[in-house]
Design brief:
With 222 residues, the chain is an alpha/beta fold. The protein has seven helices and five strands; from the N terminus they run βαβαβαβααβαα. Its EC number is 6.3.4.20.
Length: 222
């Protein structure tokens, strides 16, 4: 069976793809060039896709910097230093990003006749993004059941799989290590540059996860 996997090139999406591969699924990663300031993550996505020897790695240009409203797409907004205790929604939130990405993935899954879409959203150690919550995933699942010919006419349900939803970053690192996912190829940093900054939200959550897992993070930090 086929599975479309949303692959950013980061830790979570890479472990998510490893989970799908471990289940014996034929994975079709889909990545997005949304003109994010950290577009270097797409290079990591390509390396991860090559590692898994996928048949096709689809990269879609969505140009979300035309909308703006996020530090990840608008370079006039600074990337804040990380705060793993934050409870508000940070400026690194990209408006409707997962809704848009999942919509593309849903269409791609229909074309491929793939019964699964895998996305590495996480509701435990995350940055407060509303489109990472289980409520959002369930609502999108409900919508997708009515949105395509595959589901409406052919009665082929496309299931949204979220294997990391209830895992901490520590658990995600441990799972990735267990599945021999290429963690050394991943990129989690929100900032530009060859090396990860080590101080943004994403870096701090990642570093804490590796520390709590007792595993050395294989990527280089400034």
């Amino acid at each position: 069976m086929k599975a479309v996997v949303l692959l950013s090139g980061g830790l979570d999406s890479t472990v998510c793809m490893a989970v799908a591969k471990n289940k014996g699924l034929d994975v079709y990663p889909i990545s997005f060039d949304y003109h994010q300031r950290h577009r270097i993550e797409l290079e990591s996505a390509k390396k991860v896709a090559d590692f898994f020897a996928v048949k096709k790695h689809l990269i879609i240009d969505t140009n979300m910097n035309q909308i703006g409203g996020s530090a990840l797409t608008d370079k006039t907004i600074d990337i804040p230093n990380g705060d793993v205790t934050r409870t508000d929604i940070p400026v690194t939130y990209v408006p409707a990003r997962n809704l848009i990405f999942l919509s593309y993935a849903l269409g791609y899954a229909e074309v491929l006749d793939a019964p699964y879409i895998y996305i590495g959203v996480n509701a435990v150690d995350y940055s407060g993004y509303p489109d990472c919550r289980p409520e959002f995933i369930q609502k999108f699942q409900d919508l997708s059941d009515y949105a395509t010919k595959a589901t409406a006419a052919d009665h082929k349900k496309i299931k949204i799989e979220t294997p990391l939803l209830d895992l901490s970053k520590k658990d995600i690192v441990l799972l990735g290590n267990k599945l021999q996912a290429p963690l050394h190829l991943t990129r989690s940093c929100y900032n530009e540059g060859e090396n990860a900054c080590g101080i943004c939200d994403s870096c701090k959550l990642r570093l804490r996860g590796f520390e709590e897992a007792g595993i050395k993070d294989p990527v280089t930090y400034l």
